[in-house]
Structure formats: C-alpha cells, structure tokens
Amino acid sequence: MKKSELVSAISANSGLSKKDSEKALVATIDAITDALIAGDKVQLVGFGIFDVKERAERMGRNPKTKEVINIPATRTPIFKAGKPLKDAIAK
C-alpha cells in the first residue's frame, strides 16, 4: 500500500476529506519521528511500539576486496508489533 492509497483508506474509514486525511497522516508520522529523534518510545496500544535501537560500532568486511572496515555506531528505528496486530494478521 502506497501513501496515496493509505490516505484514501483513512478518508473512506473516517469520513474526512482526502486533504484532511493526508494532513492527519503527515502529522502522525511527524510526531512519531520527532519522538524517536528525542529518544522517546511511541507505544500505540493494540498496534505496536516504535523505538530506537542503538547499534554498537563493529568490524565488517568488504566482500569484494576482503578488506576489514570499521562500521560506526548508529541509531536505527525499530517497530515491534503488538499482540492484537499479530493475531489479526495470523487469521
């Protein structure tokens, strides 16, 4: 599902116009992004948890040259699905 299709689905389910649905979707994504940047966890009960995972610095290898390289530490977003979402998908 693409963003435009998601906006259409939100509009159909909520009764909002497509323009208002897109504004709501963008605002939601921005709020989640801002919270993750700040280091907060976003928990949507029944849906899942958005969080940030710290990845430590590690050694890697260039597969072409076999040269050992240093991969720097980084932060990456993760999503853990909640039980109701997992159960709904499993049906």
Walkthrough of the structure:
By secondary structure, the chain is of the alpha+beta class. About 45% of the residues lie in helices and about 30% in strands. It has helices spanning about 5-15, 20-35, 85-90, and strands at about 40-45, 50-55, 60, 70, 75-80. It has a 3-stranded antiparallel beta sheet. Strand 3 and strand 4 form a beta hairpin. Helix 1 packs across helix 2. The longest helix is centred in the N-terminal third of the chain and has 20 residues, at about 20-35. The two termini are about 20 Å apart. The model has no long low-confidence stretch (mean pLDDT about 95).
Keywords, please?
44% helix, two-stranded antiparallel ribbon, 3-stranded antiparallel β-sheet, alpha+beta, 91 residues, 3 helices, 30% strand, elongated, 5 strands
